[in-house]
Amino acid sequence: MAHYTTADQIDLTAVASRYGLTGVSIAPLSGGAANSSFRLGSEQGEYVLASLDNHDEQSATALAAHTRALRDLGVPTSEVVPTKDGALIATIGGRILVLKKWIAGGVQQPLPLALLTDAGDLLARLHALAPNAESLVDVPVGARRLSPQHLAAIPGFADQEFAQWLTSRLGRIRDAEADTHRSPCLIHGDLFDDNLIVRDDGGLSVLDWETISVDDPLLDLGMAAVGLAQDEAGLLATGRLHALLDGYEKSRPLTSADRALLPFEIEHAALIIAFHRYYRHNVRFPNPDRATYHRAMVRFTESVAAACEPVGGR
Predict the structure, then answer these.
(1) Phi, psi of 26, rounded to the nearest 5 degrees
(2) How far apart are CA 75 and CA 43, in angstroms?
(3) Fold of 7-102
(4) Rounded to the nearest 5 degrees, what angle is found at the Cα of 74, between the Cα atoms of 70 and 80?
(5) Contact 245, 314 (CB under 8 A)
(6) Taking a C-beta distance cutoff of 8 angstroms, is the pair 53, 107 a contact?
C-alpha cells in the first residue's frame, strides 16, 4: 500500500523553527493522490504545508523550483516560502516538506461551466511561455506520456481484456500522431478541477506542477478536457469542451489540423490516466476498493468520438 504522512507525524516545533513561524497549528487537507497536504496556521499568516511523500530531495527541489519560476513568469500559482536559510524544501523527521502561502479560495468540483473559458485561457498562457526560460531548469521532456517501461508492463496485466483494449487504442494514437509537427511547449499535464483554486476574487490559480513537461500542447489540452469537460456520468460533454476551447483560442487559435487531431489527443490523455489507475491500484499498490477505478476512463474514452464531432466545424 502507498504510505502518506498524517498530521501527528509532522514535527511542528521543528517546522516553526525552520521557517521562523510562531503560534503554529495544523489541519489536514483533502485530495492529493501522491502527497499529503496540510493547512498551517501561524501568527505570520496561513500556509499550505506539503509532505512530498513520493519524492526524493532532488525531485522535491525541482518541483519547488519549477513552481517558483512559473509564478515569477506570471502564472497564477502557489508562492513557495523558503526556509530561514533560503532553501526551497525542508527535510524534517525524515520527511521532505515544502511550504506555500495559502491562496484564499477553494476547489470547486466540477469546475463551473462559466469558469471553463478562464481555465482554457490559463492553459493557453502557459503554453505561450518559452520552454527554455532561464529560470526553468531541468524541465523533463515528454514525461506525461507512457514510458517504454509502462508500455512493456501492459501485456502482463491480469486483466487481459483491458490490456488488449489499451494496446489497440494506443496504436491508433501512435498512427494519428505519426505525421504531426507542432512545436513543443511547457505543459501542466494534470489540469483537473482539484488542481485549480477558484480564488475569492473570482480568478483561477493552478496548483501541482508534478507533471510539468515539455511536450505537444494538444496533449495538454486533451488532458484538460479529461479533467474538466466530463458530464455527471463521466462522459465527455460537448458544451464543456467548447467552453474550454473558447477560452484557449482567445490567444492560441487551433488550426484545422489541430482540430482534426484533438479528439485523438483527448483519447490519448484518457488512456494515460486509465493506465496509471490500473497500474497503481492493481500492480504497485493493490487495493480491492480501487481495482476497477480505471474503467471510468474506458467509458470516457468511448464517448470522445461522438462528443468531438462538432469540433472540426467550430
Answers:
(1) -140, 145
(2) 28
(3) Phosphorylase Kinase; domain 1 (3.30.200)
(4) 45
(5) yes
(6) no
Structure-block grid coordinates of residue 297? 476512463
What is the architecture, at CATH level 2, of domain 113-313? Alpha-Beta Complex (3.90)
User: d(Cα 55, Cα 48) in Å, to the nearest integer?
Assistant: 17
Are 247 and 120 within 8 A, CB to CB?
Answer: yes
pLDDT tens-digit readout, 88-142: 999 999 999 999 999 999 999 999 999 999 999 999 999 999 888 888 999 999 9
Q: What would the 3-class secondary structure string for 40-81 be?
A: EEECCEEEEEEECCCCCHHHHHHHHHHHHHHHHCCCCECCEE
Beta strand 213-215 pairing with 185-187:
antiparallel
Threshold 0.85, pTM exceeds: yes
Q: What is the largest CA-CA distance in the chain?
A: 60
Q: How many helices (H) and strands (E) does the chain have?
A: 9, 11
Grid cell of 82 as nine digits: 523558503
Instruction: Answer left, alpha or beta for residue 40, where phi above 0 means left and psi between -120 and 50 means alpha.
Output: beta
Enumerate the CATH 3.90.1200.10 domain ranges in the chain, comma separated. Answer: 113-313
